[in-house]
Fold this sequence. Notes:
By secondary structure, this protein is an alpha/beta fold. The chain folds into two domains: 16-214, Rossmann fold, CATH 3.40.50; 227-392, Nucleotidyltransferase, domain 5, CATH 3.30.420. The protein has helices spanning 16-22, 39-52, 67-80, 132-141, 161-170, 183-188, 194-203, 206-214, 227-232, 278-289, 302-310, 324-339, 349-356, 377-392, 396-410, 436-448; strands spanning 28-33, 59-64, 86-89, 94-97, 102-107, 119-124, 149-153, 176-181, 234-235, 245-249, 257-262, 268-274, 294-297, 317-320, 345-346, 358-362, 365-369, 469-470, 475-476.
Amino acid sequence: MRTVETIDYERPWLYQRQREAIFHAERYGLIEASTKSGKTWGCIVWLLEQAMGGRRGTAYWWIAPSYQQAEIAFRRLKGKLPRRLCQPNEARLTIALGNGAVVWFKSGERPDGLYGEDVHAAVIDEASRLREEAWHAVRTTLTATQGPVRIIGNVKGRRNWFYALARRAEAGEPGMRYAKLIAADAIAAGVLDAAEVEDARRALPEAVFRELYLAEPSDDGGNPFGLAAIAECVTDGVSGTPPACWGWDLAKSQDWTVGVALDLEGRVCRFERWQAPWQETIEGVRAATGDAPALVDATGVGDPVVEALQRGGGGNFEGFKFTAQSKQQLMEGLAVAIQRQEVRFPEGMIRVELEQFEYEYSRTGVRYAAPEGAHDDCVCALALAWRKAAEVQPGAGVLGWMMQQLAGQQKQQVPDPLPWRTARLGRRDDPVPASGVETDIYAEARRKLGLNPEHVCVRCGGRIGASRVTDGVQSWHPECR
């Protein structure tokens, strides 16, 4: 007859943010963390508790980039468990528990060797330094068991699978949970010494320190906006002032419908983000926008949505066709606005998407997009809103610069360069330049912004009202498609 022994277990002490980051009900846990913030020990405890709930023959995996790193975690767990309760195997880096479950500590250096097993729970350690193929292999081992996984690591640039997957979790993808543990959290919990962190700040290059201790990725050189410029544009929250215009990026497949409203100062004053059927989306866009001017994604399935918005007196809705050329112009306009701090936005998904946005050169030009698996809905909505703002208050940023130039040339006091900012909401009157020099600069500003000042339909030649479609360069009547 087998003797069954009952063991009283009390979870080792973990600080609150550490517990919240690791112990939750979501299947996928993505944790970007500072070095020595407790991510590894917390996940060792989590994996042990998963194995304690297992049965004979069930497997639980700890995957690290190298054998040496896997051995570190093995020794940490082995050193905490009473020998009578486990059977460690130094050669295979396994720990068998009394219930027959086995915790394995493996290297991800050879991903092909990870296929085949049925794993009931897993931890991927130092994920930013692990090959993506290893993650693919581990994911297959969790298929039959539908087991949970915790993916942890330091931040290491932006062009890696861990960073991309963390952004999906941060965006709220179902079944995923995102957390960040930084040095300040560990210092507050008494886990890390503040003086030691300050010494690291002085000793390390700033970009390295920010990645290792603040979990802030360095710029890989592929961001068109500039990380420092993005940070300078962040505000405490939405402005709360009335919208001057809206930009709407409509959901496609797994994307989100996102609406961004800017006030007359270029600040985000409203932010909407949802996933819903098309009819609900149409009603939601119409209700949120009201009578403010709006530029709406009219690409593909967005075309009939824009038509529906324009029916029934929705003359404030204008469609925008995304092409490689029009998107390039749209993003370059937004990049100029961000680098000049002419647009402001709150902390959150807008900043996240702006920071992960990329560009690359190809034979046909410059391609702007989010990394594979990530979203750019917020970036597109903000860019559309800024484009629309250039029509509500045309060339505002360029005209501000223009007036500064004229002040130096003419040596005299120049009137308010942005008189339309005091106009009523939605007014489209253009300012009247005061001299030939102003006229030339103003015309050039509008040309660079890609605006069609006459709003003439390029297909029939007639003048266009508020309801029109544009590809970023030319405009036409909705009925002249």
